[in-house]
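Journal club side-thread
Mid-discussion, someone asked how the predicted structure for our own chain would compare to the paper's figures. Pasting it here so we can look after the session.
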Amino acid sequence: MRTSTAISAAEAAKLTGVDKSTITRAVKDGKLSAYKDENGRLSIEPAELFRVFPHVSEIDAEPVHQNTDASKRVGAENATKASMLSDAFIDAHHQRFVAVQRELEETRQQRDKEREERERERHTAGETISDLRRRLDAAEEERRKKDAQVTHLLTDQRDKAEKREAVLDERRWWRGFRLIAR
């Protein structure tokens, strides 16, 4: 997975002034950390590259004769240009860094929004489940009452009443018999 700051082996070779094979050899030997992208090409983080190889600009690579005043002036101009290139390089990486920070912050905000949305959905689902359980319990209680009413209506209640009346009649008869027998 290539990050926004990662560079290829060829770019690394240009920035350090070494051959591409030197870069790949350093990776193979474990001196330089890198990873392969989806196409199998090396991706190297600049910080890791400059940890192993110093940054060399094109101006620094030019030979300078230091015996004459003109060569000293050219050397000073080259040093100034190299400094400006180095500053530009640092500015470019700083801009990349700021962009990556901004992207990270946006990603975090999006993640937080998604978490809040999931929490709201869980809360709503919990309330719905509680409401449905309450309704189910009420419906079950109502069904039990209706079953009892239907059972009461379907059973022959007259038999019980007649039996009760027969028991009462028998008791009355025995009371009357006892009164007569005395």
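Post-session note: The longest helix spans residues 69-154.
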